[in-house]
Amino acid sequence: MTFARPATYSALIFDLDGTLINSAPDIAAAVNRTFALRGWPELETDYVEAFIGNGPRRLLYDMLSDLGLPCDDATVTAALDGYIRNYTEHPADRTRFYDHVLDDLVALRDAGFRLGICTNKPHALTQSILEVLGLDVLFEAALGADAVPACKPDPRHLIAVAEAMRLPVGEGAVNWAYVGDTAVDQATADAAGVPFFVVPWGGGSLVDVPAHQRLSRLADLVQFGPRTATAVE
Ligand SMILES: O=C(O)COP(=O)(O)O
Ligand SMILES: [Mg+2]
């Protein structure tokens, strides 16, 4: 989709996994603890990482199906319970920010942006990981997949975060943007009629967007900040 680039955005909403944090090592560890109990194979982090972005149920279903293991509803539901328990016990042991993310988020806040998160990670895990990483103070709202009736790529997930931040929604009214790393994020923004930017890490290089929507780092967005734009005028 194409969109008119405004001079400023009042807010930015971010995806979490693959966009702000590399959580793949902790996700893979929780998957492997869950798999080990069932006699399923140990998986490489890179393999698991490629399936992240559609929430934990799809993560497990997609991997089990790809590996030729049982992936009926009952098996996936039991594995999901174990996975969430394992991940909750170790939410951020090995999770790290991508390069410059923390500094750049502070720069974006200082440029006048209001900040939110729209992630397919479970809501309670999202809250605890944001707290562990000290990010809870930077974001006005963060909604995980199970905090809304329909999660990404359903646009209502993103709209729910905007509404929690009291941002304008609806055609022609949007003055904020979504930043993510996968085609799921892109499809969500497109369906919501919201400008989209993609990061260069996570799954970002695989997403097909025009050059002006491709970031080299989050601080590229400072130029669209209300305070930055005012200072330039
Ligand atoms: O799929 C997940 O669990 C989370 O992914 P997201 O933060 O990239 O939406
Ligand atoms: Mg992501």
TrEMBL record:
It comes from the Bacteria. Keywords: Hydrolase. Its EC number is 3.1.3.18. GO terms for biological process: DNA repair. The keyword Transmembrane helix does not apply. It is an enzyme of class 3 (hydrolase). InterPro entries: HAD-like_hydrolase_sf (IPR050155), HAD-like_sf (IPR036412), HAD-SF_hydro_IA (IPR006439), HAD_2 (IPR041492), HAD_sf (IPR023214), PGP-like_dom2 (IPR023198). Transmembrane segments: none annotated. SUPFAM superfamilies: HAD-like. GO terms for cellular component: cytosol. Pathway: Organic acid metabolism; glycolate biosynthesis; glycolate from 2-phosphoglycolate: step 1/1. Pfam families: HAD_2 (PF13419). One of its GO terms (molecular function) is phosphoglycolate phosphatase activity. It catalyses: 2-phosphoglycolate + H2O = glycolate + phosphate. Belongs to the HAD-like hydrolase superfamily. CbbY/CbbZ/Gph/YieH family. This is phosphoglycolate phosphatase. It comes from Kaistia hirudinis.
